[in-house]
Amino acid sequence: TATNAQTITNPAKIVIAKSHVVGSGNASDDAANASAVYIGQNGGSALIYNTVFHSNYGMPLNAYNTVNVNNTFGLNAGKVQLNGEGSEMHNSALWRNNKTASGYGAQVYFGYAAATGSTKFTYNSYTGATANDTYHLTALADVNFNIGEGPNFVDPENADVEARSFDIKPS
Questions:
Q1: Among 14, 29, 42, 54, which residue is least crowded by beta carbons within 10 Å?
Q2: What pLDDT score does 133 carry?
Q3: Which is nearest to 89 in space by CA: 56, 58, 126?
Q4: Is 130's pLDDT higher than 50?
Q5: Rounded distance, CA 87 to CA 158, Å?
Q6: The whole model's pTM is what?
Q7: How many angstroms separate the CA atoms of 165 and 48, rounded?
Q8: What distances in angstroms separate CA 23 from CA 36, 75, 85, 112, one per listed residue?
Q9: Is the model more confident about 13 or about 22?
Q10: What CA–CA distance (Å, rounded) separates 134 from 89?
């Protein structure tokens, strides 16, 4: 018998791990409504970890009751949309998503009462962030020079979308 057994009251119904979601959609897609990955509200909970979403024409992720851990979202036409009180994001990077005429709009949107200043959004770095020590949030500049000013990705702007690398270079 296990002495340290844990009871999981609501296990994830879908798990996406160690994946790349790249180049979904086309330029005519409405970035505010199209999504590369959609997880509906009646599907139960989901877990996404160690996954890169980049260069998608719409929202990279539109999901209900989804926990995101250690993901990278970069150069997507839209923002990440998380709905349902079970949605969370931790230890993730959101870089230069949701481009607007004057820069970059919101990187993530929570479609419920929790906001980016809560325990459901911790240890994240993102373009346009205001540093927050309580929830360990840090700002990422829209440049890619070094870890202090930007994310320091290997090759995020390669002309060949499939060859773009969002691995982090050592500083």
A1: 42
A2: 83
A3: 126
A4: yes
A5: 32
A6: 0.88
A7: 19
A8: 8, 10, 29, 28
A9: 22
A10: 15
pLDDT of residue 19 exceeding 60: yes
What residue type is assigned to position 136 of the chain? H
The pair of structure tokens assigned to 101 is 């005429």
Residues 6+ apart with CB under 8 A from 51: 16, 17, 18, 19, 20, 21, 71, 72
- The whole-angstrom separation of Cα 40 and Cα 134 is 31
Q: How many Å apart are CA 28 and CA 121, to the nearest integer?
A: 31
Quick check: 45 and 12 in contact, CB under 8 A?
yes
Using a 10 angstrom Cβ sphere, with 0-12 exposed, 13-18 middle and 19 or more buried, the burial of residue 6 is exposed
Token code pair at residue 72: 């990278």
pLDDT band at 6 (very low <50, low <70, confident <90, very high): low
